[in-house]
């Protein structure tokens, strides 16, 4: 027998390609930053809530006073900050 009559040994088929996502890098201090944003959001939310309660007790609805509108916008900013802090990843 000559060496040309021999067939080379067959190699096993390669496994199918599977996507492996890169490992996520840990964020340093992310828990502390989230807690800080929630605390600041609650602090911003307090004046707006108090202003709304006072306006409702006076029966005015708060539409006539421009300061009430500004304080309510600050409260909505605090609410937005809380939502952002809780939904960020």
Q: Helix share of residues?
A: 55-70%
Strand content: under 5%
Roughly how many Å is the radius of gyration? 31 Å
Unreliable stretches: none
Q: How many extended strands?
A: 0
- Which structural class best describes the helix and strand composition? mainly alpha
- N-to-C SSE string, H for helix and E for strand: HH
Categorize the overall geometry: rod-shaped
Give structural notes:
- With 89 residues, the chain is mainly alpha-helical.
- The chain is built from 2 helices and no strands.
- Helix 1 (30-58) runs antiparallel to helix 2 (66-87).
- The chain is rod-shaped and about 105 Å long.
- The N and C termini lie far apart (68 Å).
- The model has no long low-confidence stretch (mean pLDDT 76).
């Amino acid at each position: 027998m000559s060496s040309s009559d021999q067939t080379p040994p067959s190699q096993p088929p390669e496994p199918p390609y599977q996507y492996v996502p890169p490992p996520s890098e840990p964020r340093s201090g992310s828990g502390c930053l989230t807690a800080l944003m929630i605390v600041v959001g609650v602090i911003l939310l307090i004046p707006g809530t108090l202003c709304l309660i006072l306006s409702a007790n006076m029966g005015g609805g708060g539409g006539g006073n421009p300061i009430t509108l500004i304080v309510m916008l600050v409260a909505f900013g605090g609410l937005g900050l809380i939502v952002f802090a809780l939904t960020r990843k």
